[in-house]
Specification:
162 residues, alpha+beta, six-stranded antiparallel barrel, 17% helix, 39% strand, globular, disordered C terminus
Length: 162
């Protein structure tokens, strides 16, 4: 991804911790509002969830997801097309834990009711009118870039890390 688009994408993600995660099950999209708990320098996004949640079950079956974030004040949005993976590693869960999650996961980051979803984007689309990132035709096409040469992989191509 170009440096400018990555910088803007990271800024939008870090400034807007809530977004819409879309998974697929039985050929149907399922979208829900989630809070991400971390964004790495390469654009990897981390989301906490229950291993028994619908999103975790759907990701275990179909790893391609979309994650969209809006910054209404900047009249901007970002959509990541990503490969999702469940990560159950205790050290990673503890490192990504936020105190506000305790209400949803009473056993804390080391409990069996908490797992991470790692989103590794392979494509990012964004429009940001405050930064004049809106390719022609004006407002109809987002700026888009491949991320680190990543390509989508089917669920069977690699195992989940629970």
């Amino acid at each position: 991804m170009s440096g400018e688009l990555l910088d803007v994408a990271l800024e939008l993600l870090r400034a807007n911790p809530y977004g819409f995660l879309t998974t697929v099950d039985d050929g149907q999209p399922h979208t829900r509002l989630v809070q991400h708990v971390g964004v790495d320098a390469d654009g990897t996004v981390w989301i906490g969830t229950s291993p028994a949640s619908r999103k975790a079950t759907e990701i275990s079956r179909h790893r391609m997801v979309s994650y969209a974030v809006e910054d209404r004040a900047a009249f901007a949005y970002l959509c990541l097309h990503a490969d999702a993976e469940l990560v159950g590693d205790r050290t990673e869960r503890v490192a990504r834990w936020q105190d506000g999650l305790k209400a949803f996961f009473p056993d804390g980051p080391a409990g069996n009711d908490f797992v991470l979803i790692r989103l590794r984007p392979h494509r990012v689309e964004l429009m940001d009118f405050s930064r004049k990132i809106h390719p022609d035709p004006y407002g109809l096409v987002p700026a888009a870039a491949e991320v680190n040469g990543r390509r989508p992989r089917p669920a069977s191509a690699h195992g989940g890390g629970r």
